[in-house]
Design brief:
Length: about 220
């Protein structure tokens, strides 16, 4: 809870002391776990989620701007065993993060009121909610339900059933591109975490990857 309050206080301070544009944002997330070390026993496919929050933008020059914000970001993945696996789970892992991005962007005028946008940056996210639900199939074909609570920790105890352990922090990078019309921005964003989602997976990465489409409306302009 202290981490959440600190992030809210930081975002409020940025908004109060800058001469920036302040707006609200929301949109669609397609989330998946990236796994470059996949051993062909598990498939990872995208799940639908959403994001919502506030955006703060500061002009650095005529064509360059700095953008930050504070948002709830839905992440996670659909996981299913392949035909090569004798047993395994088919589940949806849904994770919710409080995220703070730090982006640099550029805008280029396309028409009278329309501008093109592009940029990139870093983000830091704190896990606040999560679940893993689905079914487990044994090697004999018997199925049983999976209904796990997500616990955000770097030091799992491995003593509690019905829990899935996830790292509490998700730092990463993001890139975006889109268009701006008057007080509206419509962007497509891709973000990827630097660290694996799970604290106990060894060399397997399982990092958060999210493709999102976002609409921003700005209340205040210079």
């Amino acid at each position: 809870m202290k981490k959440v309050l600190f992030a809210i206080l930081l975002m409020t301070s940025i908004s109060c002391f800058s001469q920036a544009k302040l707006g609200i944002q929301g949109g669609y997330n397609l989330a998946v776990f990236g796994n470059p070390n996949n051993n062909n026993l598990v498939n990872y496919t995208g799940i639908s989620s959403f994001h919502i929050g506030i955006t703060d933008e500061e002009a650095i020059s005529k064509h360059v701007f700095f953008q930050t914000g504070l948002s709830y970001e839905g992440k996670g993945s659909h996981t299913s065993k392949t035909s090569f696996a004798l047993d395994g789970s088919t589940t949806d892992t849904k994770l919710g993060y409080l995220e703070l991005p730090l982006d640099l962007g550029t805008r280029i005028k396309l028409g009278n009121k329309v501008k093109a946008l592009a940029g990139a940056g870093l983000y830091g996210a704190i896990g606040i909610t999560g679940s893993e639900k689905g079914t487990y199939q044994s090697s004999t074909g018997t199925t049983s339900p999976v209904n796990n609570k997500v616990s955000f920790t770097n030091n799992p105890t491995n003593n509690t059933t019905n829990e899935t352990y996830v790292r509490p922090f998700d730092p990463g990078y993001n890139v975006f591109a889109g268009v701006e019309w008057e007080k509206f921005q419509l962007t497509a964003d891709f973000s990827e975490g630097f660290k694996g989602v799970y604290p106990t997976t060894g060399s397997d990465k399982y990092n958060n990857e999210v493709l999102s489409f976002s609409l921003v409306y700005f209340f205040k302009t210079k």
